[in-house]
Amino acid sequence: MERKFKSMDGNTAAAHVSYAFTEVAAIYPITPSSPMADYVDQWAAAGQKNIFGNTVTVSEMQAESGAAGAVHGSLNAGALTTTYTASQGLLLMIPNMYKISGELLPGVFHVSARALAAHALSIFGDHSDVMACRQTGFAMLCENSVQEVMDLGPVAHLAAIKGRVPFLNFFDGFRTSHEIQKVAVWDYKDLADMVDMDAVNAFRARALNPEHPTMRGSHQNGDIYFQNREAANKYYDAVPAIVEEYMDKINAKLGTDYKLFNYYGAEDADRVIVAMGSFCDVAEEVIDYLLANGEKVGLVKVRLYRPFVQEKLVEAIPATAKMVAVLDRTKEPGSLGEPLYLDVVSSLANCGKDDVKVFGGRYGLGSKDTTPASVFAIYDAMKEGTIKRQFTVGIVDDVTNLSLEEKPAPDTSPEGTINAKFWGLGGDGTVGANKNSIKIIGDHTDKYVQAYFQYDSKKTGGVTVSHLRFGDKPIKSSYYINKADFVACHVPAYITKHFPIARDVKPGGTLLINCAWTIDELSHHLDAASKRYIAKNNINLYTIDAIGLAASVGMGKRTNTVLQSAFFALAKVLPAEDALKYMKDAATHSYLKKGQDIVDMNHRPSMPVLQQSSRLTFRLTGLMRLMKRQMSSWKVLKSSFPRSRKSWNRSTVWMAIPCRFLPSWATKTVHSNRALPLMKSAVSPSVFRPGHRTSAYSATSAHMSARTQQSVRSR
Questions:
Q1: Sign of the CA dihedral running 437, 442, 445, 449
Q2: What pTM was estimated for this model as a whole?
Q3: Separation between Cα atoms, residue 536 and residue 548, nearest integer Å
Q4: What does R_g of the chain's alpha carbons equal in angstroms?
């Protein structure tokens, strides 16, 4: 079966497949699930038909609890109903989820899994929310990538219809929901072929009808309540076989090999990781590297999490495995282990696999970046016998000492992959332009693409970092780009604040800085460490006065189209004429709803940047020669993480901050409006002394932002 390829994010993929099976969508927006409901609403307004030949009825409620109540009522009325949610929104739906499952109603919840507010609010991803729903009676299906959301999303709907058990279909918030990849898209005719229409008609026949009254939602005493709960067992016992049936149908259509648990790695592996979510792609990338170097390692990817089929899990783990590390993207304080870990331990024990040692690890809470170094650390610790019964990766835990030591990892990304990184400001158009850029490359070339966008919690006004990859091989690199072939700094203030942007560039790579500075001014603003790095690594340094160029064509301070043109001019991934055409098409699609004047305004800057190179405002600066003359007089900033607060500098990256620094001061209450609220930001790693006034900047999860300098008195 042939499918068309299209560049989209995980939310779009989930919306595409869910729309096909949905008659009513009861919605209430919450980050990062909002785009799913938004797309469904847009398509319904445009009159798009589902597989039943109808337009989806969309009802936006006043809260997530109201949306869940609407789902419950709509299902009882005989309409196939879907909702989209995450985090606290999902938890508000839990009371209705018990009712929906208890009444065997085939609803589907698509969840972009997100952290729950504990000591602080986080809008970013982990599995805390879905793990809080394990007891509701919903079957739970997990996808690891955008393509899997597209491929396996239909299974949740198809199995719910046939099995009468509602499904919670989930994938990682932001890391999958907002990651853009080129994916093969389902045609609705192929989805319609797999629907059990007898089950659909039986569901509709059970709908509440005044002509055929039935009693539901009754009150029961202790004489029969227990029996009724147990009477549902047969439906849950049947779910795994139904899911396998539809996975087999999808495999037959697509040539894939989806199972309840998929194994990846050496057939005779002695060390195995069990996980679910986007971490699996990172693990696969590392496994490919280790297998090529003679290691015997593997990965079990969990797809159907509830009901959990222990026999299928044990069958997926190679008989040669002696150690299993189970990775959970959640934390349950006080528990003997996180949920997936406890399930795996029970499964192995129940199946008589007492010779396998099982270890439980936590990773990626609040979208903490999980890199190949973390995967290497897990396999190395198992090999060396230094792994802990309960451990963490991706952080420096020097309080309870649960973290594994992570060493610099080799480049495990596919050969030939081009990496590009863009530093922007929330609301300046950088993210929107880069979304258009990656879709242009994905939809108009044969290359595989991936794009991920790192946001500050404040969104507008905070730092954004766009991570773009494209190449000739499939891309599984679900982690931030640390070394890029092309880096662009769209905000001059990031240079004056000494962000370590230049050190993001690979040796011989390209750095583009948006500024109106002369060579001497640029030399003054760049910190010594960046200038030394540029000179020693032969970085091709360009500057462009995007603000001046935008103003000259009537765009004011809106520089996104100018800088998008600059990327295509320097990256040369497409011929200039083609890039110009596709950029104009993308601008038309993005801005037409705002009026033709806005579209024309966004068309104008592309021409001088891409085609009239003689008048181009790029200039390969003479700063390189100046740098090499001055190198001997520069002081180099320390690249290692400082061991004490007094040695911190503005170039410190927050991803590496050890745990011991947080309880004593980072959560400390600071009075007056001179201090940054720590719920959404972090204090600048400057020298803090009583009575000393210094600057503070908000922070993303990975980097300090260029928030306007504030005067803060440390307490």
A1: positive
A2: 0.86
A3: 31
A4: 27
